[in-house]
């Protein structure tokens, strides 16, 4: 299911429609533009009830990569406005009970995430093929 990420910055609205695999990046990209620090990101993750390993400092990532080299494949890094390097897990798994918490935290920064309802693609394709045959 795709997600719509909307951010209001300087009285302008920016919207991205992204698949689940790019959701974390879209959220982080908007928050980086607002100037959030590593500590701000860590607080957002903590308050939202997400796994603290979703956001790592450069040192934390280095330790993780040394202990579990395979984990480095599922993290990306981004340069923050204060020149800190932050590493983030590319596939944020948000339990349904924590979506509301995450959205409340994001609204403080004028970022909103919504799930876009799409048809069940395999069933939709079968229906289209059936209609074409009739």
Description:
The chain has 134 residues and is an alpha+beta fold. It has one domain (3-133). 42% of the residues lie in helices and 24% in strands. It contains 5 helices and 6 strands; from the N terminus they run ββααβαββαβα. It has helices at residues 23-33, 38-47, 58-67, 96-107, 121-133, and strands spanning 3-9, 12-18, 55-57, 75-79, 85-89, 111-115. A 3-stranded antiparallel β-sheet has the order 2-1-6. The chain has a 3-stranded antiparallel β-sheet with strand order 3-5-4. β1 (3-9) and β2 (12-18) form a beta hairpin. The longest helix has 13 residues, at 121-133. The chain is globular, with a radius of gyration of 18 Å. The mean pLDDT is 87.
**Major sheet: order of its strands?**
2-1-6
Helix and strand content put the structural class at alpha+beta
Individual helix count: 5
Oligomer: single chain
> Overall pLDDT, averaged?
87
Number of strands: 6
Strand residue content: 15-25%
Instruction: Describe the sheet with the most strands.
Output: 3 strands, antiparallel
Runs in which pLDDT lies below 50 for 5 or more consecutive residues are none
Radius of gyration: 18 Å
How many structural domains?
Answer: 1
- Give the termini separation: 30 Å
As a percent range, the share of helical residues equals: 40-55%
Helix/strand order: EEHHEHEEHEH
Overall, the morphology is globular
């Amino acid at each position: 299911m795709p997600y719509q990420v909307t951010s209001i910055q300087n009285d302008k609205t920016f919207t991205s429609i992204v698949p689940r695999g790019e959701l974390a990046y879209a959220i982080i990209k908007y928050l980086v533009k607002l100037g959030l620090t590593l500590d701000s990101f860590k607080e957002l993750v903590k308050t939202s009830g997400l796994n603290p390993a979703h956001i790592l400092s450069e040192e934390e990532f280095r330790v993780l990569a040394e202990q579990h080299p395979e984990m480095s494949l599922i993290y990306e890094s981004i340069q923050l406005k204060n020149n800190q390097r932050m590493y983030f897990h590319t596939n944020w798994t948000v339990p349904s009970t924590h979506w509301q918490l995450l959205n409340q935290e994001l609204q403080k920064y004028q970022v909103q995430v919504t799930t876009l309802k799409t048809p069940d693609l395999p069933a939709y394709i079968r229906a289209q093929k059936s209609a074409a045959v009739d």
